[in-house]
Fold this sequence. Notes:
A: mainly beta, seven-stranded mixed β-sheet, four-stranded antiparallel β-sheet, 11 strands, B: mainly beta, five-stranded antiparallel β-sheet
Amino acid sequence: GAVVSQHPSRVICKSGTSVKIECRSLDFQATTMFWYRQFPKKSLMLMATSNEGSKATYEQGVEKDKFLINHASLTLSTLTVTSAHPEDSSFYICSASPSGGAVGGNYEQYFGPGTRLTVT
Amino acid sequence: SQQGEEDPQALSIQEGENATMNCSYKTSINNLQWYRQNSGRGLVHLILIRSNEREKHSGRLRVTLDTSKKSSSLLITASRAADTASYFCATDLMIYNQGGKLIFGQGTELSVKP
Protein backbone atom coordinates (compact mmCIF):
# COMPACT_ATOMS: atom_id res chain seq x y z
CA GLY A 1 0.00 0.00 0.00
CA ALA A 2 0.82 3.73 0.07
CA VAL A 3 1.98 4.08 -3.51
CA VAL A 4 2.57 7.43 -5.15
CA SER A 5 2.99 7.70 -8.90
CA GLN A 6 4.28 10.51 -11.07
CA HIS A 7 3.65 11.10 -14.72
CA PRO A 8 5.55 11.51 -16.90
CA SER A 9 8.72 9.92 -15.60
CA ARG A 10 10.78 11.80 -18.14
CA VAL A 11 9.98 14.76 -20.38
CA ILE A 12 11.92 16.89 -22.82
CA CYS A 13 10.43 20.19 -23.90
CA LYS A 14 11.48 23.28 -25.77
CA SER A 15 12.22 26.62 -24.16
CA GLY A 16 9.11 28.72 -23.73
CA THR A 17 6.66 25.85 -23.52
CA SER A 18 4.79 24.67 -20.44
CA VAL A 19 4.99 21.23 -18.89
CA LYS A 20 2.56 19.59 -16.50
CA ILE A 21 3.66 16.92 -14.05
CA GLU A 22 1.10 14.79 -12.23
CA CYS A 23 1.42 13.29 -8.78
CA ARG A 24 -1.13 10.68 -7.74
CA SER A 25 -1.69 8.76 -4.55
CA LEU A 26 -2.89 5.40 -5.83
CA ASP A 27 -4.30 3.69 -2.79
CA PHE A 28 -4.88 6.42 -0.25
CA GLN A 29 -6.26 9.90 0.00
CA ALA A 30 -3.81 12.72 0.54
CA THR A 31 -4.89 16.04 1.92
CA THR A 32 -1.35 17.32 1.62
CA MET A 33 1.21 16.80 -1.09
CA PHE A 34 4.67 18.26 -1.34
CA TRP A 35 6.76 19.17 -4.37
CA TYR A 36 10.54 18.98 -4.32
CA ARG A 37 13.22 19.83 -6.80
CA GLN A 38 16.58 18.10 -6.99
CA PHE A 39 19.63 19.14 -8.99
CA PRO A 40 22.23 16.53 -9.98
CA LYS A 41 24.15 15.24 -6.98
CA LYS A 42 22.31 17.65 -4.73
CA SER A 43 19.70 17.39 -2.02
CA LEU A 44 15.95 17.79 -2.34
CA MET A 45 14.68 21.32 -2.00
CA LEU A 46 11.09 21.78 -0.91
CA MET A 47 9.30 23.98 -3.42
CA ALA A 48 5.76 24.07 -2.11
CA THR A 49 3.12 22.44 0.04
CA SER A 50 -0.05 21.59 -1.81
CA ASN A 51 -3.31 21.31 0.12
CA GLU A 52 -6.44 19.89 -1.43
CA GLY A 53 -8.98 22.56 -2.18
CA SER A 54 -6.79 25.51 -1.28
CA LYS A 55 -3.86 27.47 -2.60
CA ALA A 56 -0.40 26.02 -2.37
CA THR A 57 2.11 27.41 0.08
CA TYR A 58 5.37 28.21 -1.66
CA GLU A 59 8.81 28.25 -0.08
CA GLN A 60 10.84 31.41 -0.13
CA GLY A 61 12.43 32.03 -3.48
CA VAL A 62 10.05 29.83 -5.48
CA GLU A 63 8.10 31.75 -8.11
CA LYS A 64 4.38 31.07 -7.79
CA ASP A 65 3.61 32.15 -11.34
CA LYS A 66 6.39 29.99 -12.71
CA PHE A 67 5.49 26.81 -10.87
CA LEU A 68 1.72 26.46 -10.79
CA ILE A 69 0.37 23.90 -8.37
CA ASN A 70 -3.15 22.54 -8.39
CA HIS A 71 -4.48 20.03 -5.88
CA ALA A 72 -7.95 19.49 -7.21
CA SER A 73 -8.71 16.16 -5.58
CA LEU A 74 -7.55 14.05 -2.67
CA THR A 75 -5.51 11.84 -4.99
CA LEU A 76 -4.03 14.25 -7.52
CA SER A 77 -1.75 17.24 -7.45
CA THR A 78 -0.21 18.78 -10.55
CA LEU A 79 2.84 20.97 -11.01
CA THR A 80 2.97 23.05 -14.17
CA VAL A 81 6.28 24.60 -15.14
CA THR A 82 5.27 27.59 -17.24
CA SER A 83 7.42 29.14 -19.95
CA ALA A 84 10.16 26.65 -19.21
CA HIS A 85 13.81 27.61 -19.58
CA PRO A 86 16.92 25.41 -19.58
CA GLU A 87 17.61 26.38 -15.95
CA ASP A 88 14.32 24.70 -15.01
CA SER A 89 15.80 21.37 -16.05
CA SER A 90 15.81 19.25 -12.94
CA PHE A 91 14.41 16.20 -11.19
CA TYR A 92 11.02 16.94 -9.66
CA ILE A 93 9.74 14.69 -6.87
CA CYS A 94 6.41 14.76 -5.12
CA SER A 95 5.34 13.22 -1.85
CA ALA A 96 1.93 12.65 -0.34
CA SER A 97 0.77 12.61 3.24
CA PRO A 98 -2.33 10.51 3.99
CA SER A 99 -5.46 12.28 5.16
CA GLY A 100 -6.36 11.83 8.77
CA GLY A 101 -3.34 13.54 10.16
CA ALA A 102 -0.50 12.21 12.20
CA VAL A 103 -0.17 8.67 13.45
CA GLY A 104 1.24 8.82 16.93
CA GLY A 105 2.29 12.40 16.32
CA ASN A 106 4.19 11.61 13.16
CA TYR A 107 3.06 12.27 9.64
CA GLU A 108 3.81 9.55 7.13
CA GLN A 109 5.00 10.71 3.75
CA TYR A 110 5.27 8.64 0.63
CA PHE A 111 7.41 9.68 -2.29
CA GLY A 112 6.82 9.37 -5.99
CA PRO A 113 9.53 8.06 -8.33
CA GLY A 114 10.31 11.51 -9.71
CA THR A 115 10.07 13.25 -13.08
CA ARG A 116 13.17 14.25 -14.99
CA LEU A 117 12.56 17.46 -16.91
CA THR A 118 14.95 18.57 -19.61
CA VAL A 119 14.37 21.92 -21.29
CA THR A 120 16.22 22.43 -24.55
CA SER B 1 17.78 27.73 5.27
CA GLN B 2 16.88 25.06 7.74
CA GLN B 3 18.49 22.31 5.78
CA GLY B 4 20.62 19.95 7.73
CA GLU B 5 24.18 19.12 7.02
CA GLU B 6 25.51 15.66 6.49
CA ASP B 7 28.99 14.32 6.63
CA PRO B 8 30.82 12.90 5.01
CA GLN B 9 29.61 14.09 1.62
CA ALA B 10 31.06 10.95 0.09
CA LEU B 11 32.13 7.65 1.61
CA SER B 12 33.84 4.74 -0.09
CA ILE B 13 34.22 1.41 1.73
CA GLN B 14 34.76 -2.27 1.05
CA GLU B 15 31.98 -4.82 1.24
CA GLY B 16 31.57 -6.13 4.75
CA GLU B 17 32.72 -2.92 6.42
CA ASN B 18 30.41 -0.66 8.39
CA ALA B 19 29.34 2.74 7.08
CA THR B 20 28.50 5.66 9.35
CA MET B 21 26.83 8.83 8.18
CA ASN B 22 26.10 11.85 10.32
CA CYS B 23 23.43 14.51 10.11
CA SER B 24 23.10 17.79 11.97
CA TYR B 25 20.11 20.11 11.95
CA LYS B 26 19.22 23.54 13.23
CA THR B 27 15.76 23.64 14.77
CA SER B 28 13.57 21.57 17.06
CA ILE B 29 12.02 18.61 15.33
CA ASN B 30 9.14 16.20 15.65
CA ASN B 31 11.09 13.34 14.15
CA LEU B 32 14.05 12.65 11.92
CA GLN B 33 13.95 10.31 8.96
CA TRP B 34 16.57 8.65 6.80
CA TYR B 35 16.06 7.98 3.11
CA ARG B 36 18.00 6.22 0.42
CA GLN B 37 18.14 7.20 -3.23
CA ASN B 38 19.67 5.22 -6.03
CA SER B 39 21.03 7.32 -8.86
CA GLY B 40 18.25 9.06 -10.77
CA ARG B 41 15.52 7.30 -8.85
CA GLY B 42 12.96 8.15 -6.19
CA LEU B 43 13.40 8.03 -2.45
CA VAL B 44 13.09 4.95 -0.30
CA HIS B 45 12.15 5.50 3.33
CA LEU B 46 14.55 3.66 5.63
CA ILE B 47 13.75 4.57 9.19
CA LEU B 48 12.02 7.20 11.34
CA ILE B 49 13.18 8.12 14.82
CA ARG B 50 11.00 10.24 17.04
CA SER B 51 12.34 13.17 19.01
CA ASN B 52 11.88 11.28 22.28
CA GLU B 53 13.82 8.26 21.04
CA ARG B 54 17.59 7.90 21.23
CA GLU B 55 18.26 4.81 19.15
CA LYS B 56 16.42 2.65 16.67
CA HIS B 57 17.30 -0.49 14.75
CA SER B 58 16.00 -1.96 11.54
CA GLY B 59 17.83 -4.95 10.13
CA ARG B 60 21.40 -3.83 9.38
CA LEU B 61 20.51 -0.19 10.08
CA ARG B 62 21.06 1.58 13.38
CA VAL B 63 20.03 5.18 13.88
CA THR B 64 20.83 7.38 16.84
CA LEU B 65 19.41 10.77 17.71
CA ASP B 66 20.87 13.34 20.08
CA THR B 67 18.43 16.23 20.35
CA SER B 68 20.74 18.17 22.69
CA LYS B 69 23.37 18.26 19.96
CA LYS B 70 20.80 18.34 17.16
CA SER B 71 22.47 15.46 15.43
CA SER B 72 21.75 11.96 14.19
CA SER B 73 23.80 9.13 12.78
CA LEU B 74 23.00 6.25 10.48
CA LEU B 75 25.09 3.11 10.75
CA ILE B 76 24.91 0.41 8.09
CA THR B 77 26.59 -2.76 9.28
CA ALA B 78 28.14 -5.44 7.10
CA SER B 79 27.70 -3.35 3.98
CA ARG B 80 26.97 -4.84 0.58
CA ALA B 81 27.61 -3.55 -2.92
CA ALA B 82 23.83 -3.12 -3.24
CA ASP B 83 23.96 -0.51 -0.46
CA THR B 84 25.67 1.86 -2.89
CA ALA B 85 23.38 4.90 -3.04
CA SER B 86 22.89 8.40 -1.68
CA TYR B 87 21.56 8.65 1.85
CA PHE B 88 19.62 11.65 3.12
CA CYS B 89 18.41 12.66 6.53
CA ALA B 90 15.22 14.70 6.72
CA THR B 91 13.79 16.56 9.66
CA ASP B 92 10.05 16.76 10.18
CA LEU B 93 9.06 20.25 11.24
CA MET B 94 5.46 19.19 11.73
CA ILE B 95 3.12 22.00 10.82
CA TYR B 96 -0.24 21.66 12.47
CA ASN B 97 -2.90 20.16 10.24
CA GLN B 98 -0.74 20.25 7.12
CA GLY B 99 1.22 17.08 7.37
CA GLY B 100 4.89 16.97 8.13
CA LYS B 101 7.10 19.34 6.20
CA LEU B 102 10.43 17.64 5.58
CA ILE B 103 13.70 19.50 5.27
CA PHE B 104 16.45 17.39 3.73
CA GLY B 105 20.13 17.29 4.49
CA GLN B 106 22.74 17.51 1.77
CA GLY B 107 23.19 13.77 1.57
CA THR B 108 26.05 11.29 1.75
CA GLU B 109 27.07 9.40 -1.37
CA LEU B 110 28.01 5.89 -0.30
CA SER B 111 30.02 3.59 -2.53
CA VAL B 112 30.52 0.00 -1.45
CA LYS B 113 33.14 -1.85 -3.43
CA PRO B 114 32.88 -5.61 -3.87
